[in-house]
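Before we proceed, please read the two lines closing this message. Report back on whether the structure tokens fit the sequence:
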Amino acid sequence: MQELAERMIKKALQAVDPYHLIRRQLRYEDSRLHIQDRLTLRLEDYKHIYLLGIGKGVAPMAAAMEELLGKRLDKSRVIVKYGHGQSLNKSEVFEAGHPIPDANTLQASQKLLELAEEAGADDLVFVLITGGGSALFELLPRDMNLDDLAGINNMLLASGASIDEINTVRKHLSLVKGGRLAQKIAPARCVSLILSDVIGDPLESIASGPTAPDPTTFEQARHILDKYRLWDKLSPKIQHIIEGKNRDVKESPDADQPVFKNVNNIIIGNNRLALKILEKEAGEAGLNTLVLTDRAEGEARELGVFLAGVLRSAKEDALPVAAPGCLILGGEPTVSIKGTGKGGRNQELVLAALLALKNYNRPFYLCSVGSDGTDGPTDAAGAWINEKTWAKAVQNKLNALEYLENNDSYSFFKVLNQLIITGPTRTNVMDLIFFLV
């Protein structure tokens, strides 16, 4: 089972590789660029062509765009996470902090904004967007500094707030998120090519929607901060911004703004695409398959317990899939951090599943993997268990419940040598979760 699972993960990650997504979905023929079946651009209609990129996976996307556009590409600037850069022919590559922005983030973002503002009415600007863009592309109002931003980011990440909720708050503390990049690019034509890392692919949430209309408001940002009891922990100057009283940060542009008539936002890859490859590989191996959802969210440990129950049902009652079978889901659960340990949502999900399956000795394999290769502040993408894991933990005198309560799933699985380590994948389509029975 483990060999099949490793092959499935490898193939799924290859399917959402940013370079190959661009090469498969864009075609350049006779001075025309065809994007999927949705858009055809006559490049000779544009005086200059510029390329901007934000996110952990945009360097390989930029490499593919350089190959496609050749001499027609005039200038390009992209921002990636430290260690995710690569040497490109025409693109300036800036590396910056993730998941917390740093000084290099602000400097690189200013450089991108300057190029965006160079574009005129006769120009075309491509914007490449992947997961990580929210942290990597940022400019702040005068009353905020990086320490302020780091503080509120840390609070949001630790609160259990969803990525949509986190992005709603971020957009209302920013000069570039929530459609504001599209405003800077105008009056040039803007085409954004997007690798989605958000459940349901809402354009306004992916990388905080820099070129998408934003339906969220200051009022909604305030509601989220109240919901997670964070409002009273904010400094007065941050509260002032969220209340809409800072003249630097105006309400984000909504769909009624004319700027968006000249903008195309196109999804080129998402979680669903990766799940289809998992299903294909399992099916070709002779397994019954079922893709349950690509919208899994909520507390990671609760999802782990749920999956353990479904696994038993599949194994013993052939529901909702019969053995030999594979049940697949994707999404992005969250973790409310209460302990002092080290881990991530995928590792925590698997540890919770293990506790629910303790002493279950019928053959199975269950895993959860972050598609970007990074699960929480660790070098692991996720973890796996099988019917031998519980006995192995007991033999090593590991108390699984104590590790779970301390949010220390990484340490637990490291002892057992059951971490999944892929290294940086340079893609991000949320998490891949499946079991084999």
